[in-house]
Design brief:
The protein is 22% helix and 34% strand. By secondary structure, the chain is α+β, with helices and mostly antiparallel strands. The protein folds into two domains: 10-230, Rossmann fold, CATH 3.40.50.300; 244-371, Nucleic acid-binding proteins (OB fold (Dihydrolipoamide Acetyltransferase, E2P)). Strands 6-7-8-3-9-10 form a six-stranded mixed sheet, with helices on both faces. Strand 4 and strand 5 (72-73) form a beta hairpin. The longest helix has 18 residues, at 173-190. The model is unreliable at 365-385 (pLDDT under 50).
């Protein structure tokens, strides 16, 4: 489109909160979004991400805090006066209107001149590459095409901010990949400021400039994709960002930048993310791709395990193996492994991260008991009961 969205410098959420029936769905959300940024709100179901988006859109009133666009407070304005565009999960298209009419509807409601409506509508149709489908009804389109219409309808209004609520969750895997690229292309070409809600960490990592990870209505971490991917702030973020191997162990040695942890007679050298001391019970985590097949010789952090499940995933295998201490190990590897294989795996201490456990124990993990305990008594709560 030839014109750019309305300009502003930053959008600030200051102490934003929302209660439902006395229960906090969102608490103390502080976030500054720079103009042109792509922000992803990420987290499991019920974490507060859609609540945050609906508060931004004006579909839910705040019960605490405020929202500012530069020096203008916008949380007191009705949705239609905020100038934001919204893309919903279910597209929310008018089924009796053509693609072109769906896109032009908002412009017509603003009583813009007919020539302006026509020009901007045609630009939006071309932008989402639906020229051949402009006369069709939504029911005659594929899911991906309907989502393009919903996006065009939002951006044709030249909004200062575009809000997207899990817009790809109803699409198949191939379409999701295509639409991820399409949304990012539109974001960059139009200079849009975008807030995008998703529960898919891969989707968020590939699209966003910054991620906001939420849990139980509270922000756990805000940062660039690489930062959250490599150095999660706590084990809750690590769990959500793909650290499938999480173990509760005890610190036996601690020095600058290195920690030795122990459980069930197994000692591992790791890297602390938080301040920990000797005697602390901690959560130790590593990504499946950072568990590697030993190449020979004695290596640090050796884990001997029997392969139980192998899933083919193209160039890599997703492998589940069980160690001699009794806990399950998740591995991604290019090595050809088969069920029944016994192998030695290693983990680089720099990739094995130590998190403070906090007040909440791991809900689904093996706890490695003390060295004098019977290893056969270990129970892996990740396995089916």
């Amino acid at each position: 489109m030839t014109s750019k969205p309305k300009e502003f410098n930053e959008l600030r959420l200051e102490g934003v909160g929302r209660k439902f029936g006395g229960q906090d769905a969102l608490q103390d959300l502080d976030l500054t979004i720079r103009a042109g940024e792509f922000i992803a709100l990420l987290g499991p179901s019920g974490c507060g991400k859609s609540t945050a988006l609906n508060c931004l859109a004006g579909l839910l009133p705040l019960t605490a805090g405020s929202i500012w666009q530069d020096e203008t407070r916008v949380d007191t304005l009705p949705p239609e006066r905020r100038g934001f565009g919204m893309v919903f999960q279910n597209y929310a298209l008018f089924p009796h209107m053509s693609v072109r009419k769906n896109i032009s509807f908002g412009l017509e409601m603003r009583r813009l001149p007919k020539a302006e409506v026509a020009r901007r509508t045609e630009e939006a149709v071309r932008l989402v590459q639906l020229e051949e489908h402009a006369r069709k009804l939504p029911g005659q389109l594929s899911g991906g095409q309907q989502q393009r219409v919903a996006i065009a309808r939002a951006v044709v209004l030249e909004p200062s901010l575009v809000l997207m609520d899990e817009p790809l969750s109803n699409l198949d895997a191939k379409l999701r990949l295509e639409m991820r690229t399409e949304i990012r292309r539109l974001h960059q070409s139009l200079g849009l400021t975008t807030v995008y809600v998703t529960h898919d960490q891969e989707e968020a990592l590939s699209m966003a400039d910054r991620l906001v990870v939420l849990r139980n209505g509270k922000v756990q971490q805000i940062g660039a994709p690489e930062e959250l991917h490599t150095t999660p702030a706590n084990w809750h973020v690590a769990d959500f960002m793909g650290f499938r191997n999480l173990l509760s162990m005890q610190v036996v040695e601690a020095s600058a930048g290195r920690v030795v942890v122990e459980g069930a007679g197994r000692r591992l050298t790791a890297t602390p993310v938080a301040d920990v001391a000797v005697g602390d019970t901690v959560v130790v985590g590593v990504r499946p791709e950072d568990v590697v097949v030993a190449s020979g010789g004695v290596a640090e952090n050796e884990l001997h395990a029997d392969v139980e499940v192998v899933e083919y995933q193209g160039r890599e295998l997703a492998v589940e193996a069980r160690t001699r201490e009794g806990f399950r190990l998740h591995i991604r590897t290019g090595h050809r492994l088969a069920p029944g294989d016994s192998r030695t795996f290693t983990v680089d201490p720099a990739r094995l991260l130590v998190f403070a456990q906090g007040d909440e124990p791991l809900p689904e993990a093996t706890t490695l008991v003390s060295s004098d305990a019977d290893a056969s008594a270990l129970v892996d709560s990740r396995s089916p009961s």
